[in-house]
Design a protein that fits this description.
- The protein is an alpha/beta fold and 332 residues long.
- Helices cover 42% and strands 18% of the residues.
- The chain has helices spanning 2-26, 36-50, 66-74, 90-97, 164-177, 179-191, 200-208, 219-227, 259-269, 272-280, 297-302, 316-328, and strands at residues 28-32, 54-58, 83-86, 101-102, 124-136, 156-159, 195-197, 214-218, 232-236, 238-239, 242-243, 245-253.
- The strands form two sheets. Strands 1, 2, 3, 4, 5, 6, 7, 8, 9 and 12 form a ten-stranded mixed beta sheet that branches.
- Strand 1, helix 2 and strand 2 form a beta-alpha-beta unit.
């Protein structure tokens, strides 16, 4: 009897192992830097429509995009991830430079304008948000918020510029004004008691609650405060007259063993359906491709900002020196 039971247990274990292996071979592993509250629903919809299971690894607010990029670089020779959904562009370009991405031009590639994609298809952008000046309307007088704000900064907040969209913003300032000007401004800002906080969400909270009068953040965070009835308004950040539109990006990781499923997910994310869903979400993300259905009024108002958006690709060469400097600063 013991031998029979042992045989059954071993057989059941082999069956479970085979089932797990089959599921793993059919499913996808997605690393995702975009907020789970918005991205998970999209990925679960892909599961429902295709029957392809998805395992998601999210990032944290305090290390948005940068830690996942570094993880993918560490795993480059033995990849665990199939598709990377990043919440910005320059980190994805770092992976491209390292040879970690696989080119693919699928059904959604053509609908995305050239400035928001790699021409060879190593990565493609979709569903952008903008850097904005978020202002508490109760502050008096209205603040003068320039490209590099001067004056008292003890009621101004920005996220630590070591990751995500704030890093892209700093790289843009580095390229436009030069490293010495940016470094001098940073020293001045810290002397003026600028609030450096863990993420854009914290900037939003400080301004929305009136602890700070204004700050740099993203349009998705601004709309969270607006929906909560907070006394806030926004203006697009402009550097030399250009807005900073930061798309989500998606890419296939070189070495994936689930290429067909990865390609299907790329097609899904770059579709009009997905861009429309993200535009209609609380994030109000701006479609980059043509959308034939009606958009929310908040998104319609931001569409013209795309016409003056900075081309982020030329900024890539400045990302590494800017980041090295920021990491050496031991920011509080």
């Amino acid at each position: 009897m013991t031998a029979v039971i042992l045989s059954l247990v071993v057989g059941w274990g082999v069956f479970l192992s085979q089932t797990s292996s089959q599921t793993s071979s059919q499913g996808l592993v997605v690393y995702c830097a975009h907020d789970a509250v918005y991205s998970e629903a999209v990925l679960r919809r892909f599961e429902q429509q295709t029957g392809i299971p998805v395992t998601i690894r999210f990032d944290t607010e305090a290390t948005k995009s940068l830690s996942l990029v570094r993880m993918l670089l560490d795993e480059k020779d033995h990849p665990r991830c199939d598709v990377f959904w990043n919440n910005e562009q320059l980190g994805t370009m770092e992976l491209q430079r390292a040879g970690a991405l696989l080119a693919y031009k699928g059904s959604g590639f053509a609908r995305i304008p050239a400035p928001f994609k790699d021409p060879e298809g190593h990565w493609v952008g979709f569903a952008a948000r903008f850097r904005v000046q978020m202002i508490n309307t109760n502050c008096e007088p209205p603040p003068e918020f320039g490209e590099l704000p001067e004056g008292p900064l003890d009621r101004v907040a920005i996220a630590k510029p070591l990751f995500g969209t704030t890093l892209t913003h700093y790289v843009c300032l580095w390229q436009e004004f030069g490293p010495e000007t940016l470094k001098a401004w940073q020293r001045h800002a810290l002397e003026q008691k600028l609030h450096l906080v863990p993420g854009n969400g914290r900037v939003m909270s400080l301004v929305a609650d009136g602890i700070c009068d204004y700050g740099w953040t993203d349009t998705d965070d601004f709309h969270v405060a607006l929906d909560d009835g907070k006394p806030v308004r926004m203006l697009p950040v402009r550097v030399r007259g250009k807005t900073i539109a930061i798309p989500n990006t998606v890419a296939i990781i070189r070495g994936t063993r689930r290429l067909s499923g990865a390609q299907k997910l790329i097609d899904f994310l770059l579709s009009e359906e997905t861009e429309l869903a993200l535009a209609r979400s609380k994030a109000r993300q701006v479609p980059l491709g043509l959308v034939t259905a009606a958009l929310p009024a908040d998104v319609d108002r931001m569409l013209p900002w795309l016409k003056t958006a900075t081309d982020l690709a030329p900024l890539f060469e400045f990302r590494e020196p800017c980041l090295r400097w920021l990491e050496s600063e031991n920011l509080p």
